[in-house]
Amino acid sequence: MENKLGNPKNTIEILNKYHFVFQKKFGQNFLIDTHVLDKIIDSANITKDDFILEIGPGIGTMTQYLAEAAKKVVAVEIDKMLIPILEDTLSSYNNVSVINQDILTLDINALVTKENEGKPIKVVANLPYYITTPIIMGLFENQVPMESITIMVQKEVAERMQANPGSKNYGALSLAVQYYCEPYIVANVPPNCFMPRPSVGSSVIRLTRHKISTVEVKDERLMFRLIRASFNQRRKTLVNGLNNATDIPYNKEEIVMCLEKMNLSPNIRGEALTLHQFAELSNLLKNFKE
Ligand code: SAM
User: Fold this and answer.
1) What residues contact residue 79 under an 8 Å CB cut-off, 6+ apart?
2) How far is 18 from 20, CA to CA, in rounded Å?
């Protein structure tokens, strides 16, 4: 492939050809390491039956790899200056479409219905780090049919996604990710694998969607409210944290009663609870209002 990207020389050539100016506000750090690209493609387990959504293709480096491995790739890029470049670098692939839009405003469910008959897709991306959480949470909360999400994120964010109780990285993001998926950190990636170099370390993480939920939750919104309130006031006990939150309609006595039923101390902190315990607490509280 004449135009094959993924090494610094070809990337610089394309950038110069189009006088491209990097936009910091869009989190533009392009991959220039073929080993990392191979690793991402391998760990995403892509087959010729797969429909891939790529978020932020940049100049199309990973898109070329995806197009060769998958049946169809749709790449969503916000920066209109990259569109003519993508038309050039992807010109020899007939299984790629590029959408020039902000991923946060795109109706991904409609896209999956139209392009993949509503069947589960795989998301693969070197994400713009400034919107990692809204992108991931948007995919989960909108119930986009997905098998897996394989993404490059900031190293600390990958560690938070995979963290368990007892770790300083454990928090609302760990619980949200683990409620929907099984996280697995595939590789750590140093700044010199990107152009320009980011100021932080990066990791590739694969989130495999649970086929069957690992916890039973009567009211997901309530459980996530409990989780958010507990970690908003991390240093407080769970009971005080929940009691101070305006969107939790339960008083101290009700919360303590539930903790007792769960054989947990009334002085426990939220950060000590597992996903199963948050689920159980929300189910017990829900019983009061039913
Ligand atoms: N995939 C390319 C690579 O690996 O070389 C580029 C990755 S770069 C870290 C992130 C890309 O996401 C950039 O191309 C940026 O313009 C794009 N981007 C930033 N915000 C976006 C948004 N809200 N919607 C879609 N794309 C976005």
Assistant:
1) 23, 26, 28
2) 5
Grade residue 3 by pLDDT with cuts at 50, 70 and 90. low
State whether the beta carbon of 66 lies less than 6 angstroms from ligand 1: no
Of ligand 1's atoms, which has the minimum distance to the CA of residue 58?
A: 14
Residue 247 labelled as part of a binding site: no
Q: Is 126 within any annotated ligand binding site?
A: yes
Domains of the chain (ranges; CATH) run 8-209 (3.40.50.150), 220-288 (1.10.8.100)
- Residue position matching structure tokens 């191979």: 38
Whether ligand 1 lies within 6 angstroms of the CB of 230 is answered as: no
E-assigned strands of the chain?
Answer: 30-31, 51-55, 72-77, 96-100, 121-126, 146-154, 181-189, 194-195, 202-209
Q: Does the pTM exceed 0.85?
A: yes
- With a 6 Å cutoff on the Cβ, whether 126 touches ligand 1 is yes
pLDDT tens, residue by residue, 213-252: 899 999 999 999 999 999 988 888 999 999 989 899 999 9
Q: Whose CA is nearest to atom 6 of ligand 1?
A: 58
Residue 79 in contact with ligand 1 by CB distance below 6 A: yes
User: Any binding-site annotation on 102?
Assistant: yes
The rounded Å distance from CA 47 to ligand 1 centre is: 24
The answer to whether the CB of 239 falls within 8 A of the CB of 269 is no
Q: From the CB of 33, is ligand 1 less than 6 Å away?
A: no
Tens-digit pLDDT profile for residues 144-173: 999 999 999 999 999 999 999 989 999 999
Give me the pLDDT at residue 1, please. Answer: 47
Alpha carbons 51 and 62: distance in angstroms, whole number: 15
In the three-class reduction of DSSP (H, G, I as helix; E, B as strand; rest coil), residue 238 is classed as helix
